Amino acid sequence: MLDSRPLMQQQATKLAILISGHGSNMASLAATCRDEHWPAQVAVVIASRPDAPGIARARALGLPVETLASSAFASREAFDAALIERLDALEVGLVVLAGFMRILTDRFVQHFAGRLINIHPSLLPAFAGLDTHARALAAGVRLHGATVHLVTPELDHGPIIAQAVVPVLEGDDAATLAERVLRLEHTLLPRAVRWMVEGRVRLHQGRVLVDGIDDAQRLIVDNALSAEFGQRAAGAHVGTFADQARP
Questions:
Q1: Which residues are 94's β-sheet partners?
Q2: Catalytic-role residue among 37, 111, 120, 157
Q3: pLDDT tens figures, 187-228
Q4: Is 204 noted as a catalytic residue in this protein?
Q5: CA-closest candidate to residue 214, choices 237, 244, 191, 245
Q6: What strand order describes the sheet that includes 65-67?
């Protein structure tokens, strides 16, 4: 018997998606939520930059969009306090960081503990922080990818919900590698968020367990990688790939 409870109950959940850039992950998440009839709705998309291209993308999807320009605040603490106030007013149940280029304060993270997830473009714990694709190439890793994880005060080190893995190919540059990873992110993030809103995700001894989901389903493997490595790659444990992606 596990001594853990689901982080969220299976009920209608209001989602807040926070963006800073193009918002392609936001769009994929919102469209999947709508098309698959999740027990959830996107209550708001909040952009930290008024010129973020994702604002137009969200409006085209008919989503409620707001801008909270980080440049208008004197400090990170002031920005995060305003963001907490707005999300609480909307009674948001789950906050999704989808290309949100802000380092959040401990107060914000603790306020939404267990209800705050992020998608990061690397196989964490490898390559936390910025410039992940260039750093992966410089390190000479064979595998790269993306991770959806619970957010904790330590940057990019929260418990892992799911990962996606791609091969690093001969001739790759940061742009081509980023494009390959992003294609899988558009499947990875909706999958992890759906598990959250369905009440499947729980923490046990600091690790994520997903009820009714085995480890293989928590790993999305690029088709090119499946072809190269065959069944061994498709069935490998998430940790195997993360180890191979370490610099």
A1: 15
A2: 120
A3: 999 999 999 999 999 999 999 999 999 989 999 999 877 665
A4: no
A5: 237
A6: 65-67, 40-47, 13-19, 94-97, 116-120, 143-150, 160-167, 219-221
